[in-house]
Structure prediction request, 192 residues.
Amino acid sequence: MKDAPTRFVALAALFLAPLLVPLAEGATDAPPKPLTVLAFRHAETAGSTRSGGDPELSDGGAARAEALARLLANSGVTHVFSSEFARTQATIAPLAEQLGLEIQVVPADDGAAQVDALLDLPPGSIAAVCGHSNTVPGIVSGLGGEARDLVEHPKYGGMLEHESYDRLFVVTRPTTDDGASGVQTIELRYGD
Prediction:
């Protein structure tokens, strides 16, 4: 009779195995994880950017870049993006270095390419994007989010105030077929 319990366990395993396989493979009815984008402007510069120059960060800007790296150190960032300018790359460099990520450069004048690169990321990705006062609002809106309290510019439309360096937009976009529905945007401030 010792074989009866063994046979029962074997039969139970045979009948229950098909039911347990989806659980073992991690199959659930949960939707795919959303795309999260952290979009922000470069930190303060050592010179003017109004004439098309490409100055390095000021001491205050470097401190803000370090504050950003501390803030996002444990946020799960999987991708970092920047424009081709020194000021954007220097702002995101401490975070990229801390996380061991390579900065992906997308030209500042190609907002559509930046949004496409973000939308092409795998579900569950968390991307940090360092842009400019005139590009960050376009990235946020291109993802279906909303940036408020913008100033109107005759050439660029809505943009961040020129002296505003502390605004960070968190856009969470579901990775479902309807894409833009359900997008959430929150705004944070960082640094001194």
User: Anything to note?
Assistant: The longest strand covers residues 35-41.
